[in-house]
């Protein structure tokens, strides 16, 4: 269990003191896939670096299984970091080492014998689906492949916690989806706790069970992902959950019911979703807002539908839409 | 025209060929070993110093006392600003202490090393500063100690850049060896000065300079090729 208690972090800059984190209190349970989301500059990266002490908090506690990280010596901290590993937006692989040697790196640091380390690294290459890249150099791989190697490297020391700092932000939606699936399957197999820092709501939606929304260094809202998605309360949450420009209208106009449809890799070529719903179910939906993209025959994005009628009609619409794979649907009003 | 015709007269050509045969082989050898040995010793001193300049920085992986860093930086700046000709004379007592004499080819190695190790320290510093700070952060997140970061991340990651910079150093030191002819250092520089400057045998001087140019080209070619071969960031 990871507990952050009244965590504060301030930076001294030329322009004065910047409060990056203000009184953060969070509890992350073992086995969670915990999302921390916020706009850029919200303090996400600082927060995650306070967990493994790459940034020292100005005040407050970081308890990992009851041990206060802020009180550890440098040496104890290095030991502890083998249990809390991290992957990054820019992968941060050693460019002059082969993939196999990159995965061996954390084992080398803790003094594991070369032969043993290489055996473990080969196993990990299989787990991340790149068994044939042992002797390739990172520069020869695509972004998605490099992130897989970084994941294998992060898993080498059998960590209990995996921190992902914008790990998919440099990847296209399809590769993002593949990497997230890999992280989920690793989570399911090894039972490790995953903390995901992102600015993309779609990432939280796809993989996290709990989420904290960070806004200007403070936790604006925290809870189950499904709950926050269906009824975001804070302004920061609304801004993230509803597509751009929509949250700022404050009140969603009209008296009809609103349904939020999130496309997360749904087959776009099969059939026109809203039109077929009208034909098959006789539900006429107005599209109040849509921001979707078609990538390689798959849709990504968000749509807000307005539906006239009673609750029964809305339920039918929800059931109909949920039959489609890669689509997430919620009634928001 | 008079100059040119006298430069290439049968007489001077014969004489030059004679000097080439009797002295150049030894001179080439002396230049090579003085250059290579001096560079080697300069790297032995300059590499750790350059590493310290980066790791000991206040934002480095193992910050050193500010006073020490100021001292190191000042020492390097002073040594780098003294003209080589002056430095050769200033370090004579040290040369005598180490080599036993202040004249001759071996004796010229001491001032060459003193003149070039601060230069190499700065080159190493710039190479190590090129290492992606995110990669260093990643190593820290895996529990790497400052010395592990230095030896397993910073130096291996900057090998291609170090090789490129050492190539710059060796060609510069090659140029310095020519100057050491003044204090009796051997090599092509001595021949160029003795025959060309003191005895007006310009053709001999031209031959010595051409050989120096060829040697610079050779070192540069080898260095560039080696750096490219060592750099795994370049896709094959």
Profile the largest sheet of chain A: 6 strands, mixed
pLDDT averaged residue by residue of chain A: 88
**Rg of chain A, nearest Å:** 22 Å
Choose one word for the global shape of chain A.
globular
Any descriptors?
heterodimer, A: 333 residues, alpha/beta, 6-stranded mixed sheet, 4-stranded antiparallel sheet, 11 helices, globular, B: 236 residues, 0% strand, elongated
Structural write-up:
- The complex is a heterodimer of chains A (333) and B (236).
- With 333 residues, chain A is an alpha/beta fold.
- Helix content of chain A is 34%, strand content 31%.
- In chain A, the strands form 3 sheets. Chain A has a 6-stranded mixed sheet with strand order 6-7-8-3-9-10, sandwiched between helices. Chain A has a 4-stranded antiparallel sheet with strand order 2-1-4-5, with helices on one face. A 4-stranded antiparallel sheet of chain A has the order 12-13-11-14, sandwiched between helices.
- The radius of gyration of chain A is 22 Å and the shape is globular.
- The mean pLDDT of chain A is 88.
- Chain B has 11 helices and no strands.
- Chain B has helices spanning 2-7, 10-55, 66-81, 84-90, 92-99, 109-129, 133-141, 146-157, 159-179, 188-198, 202-230.
- In chain B, α2 (10-55) crosses α9 and α4 (84-90) crosses α6 (109-129).
- Chain B is elongated and about 75 Å long.
- Chain B starts with a helix and ends in a 6-residue tail after the last helix.
- The mean pLDDT of chain B is 90.
Condensed summary:
The complex is a heterodimer of chains A (333) and B (236). By secondary structure, chain A is of the alpha/beta class.
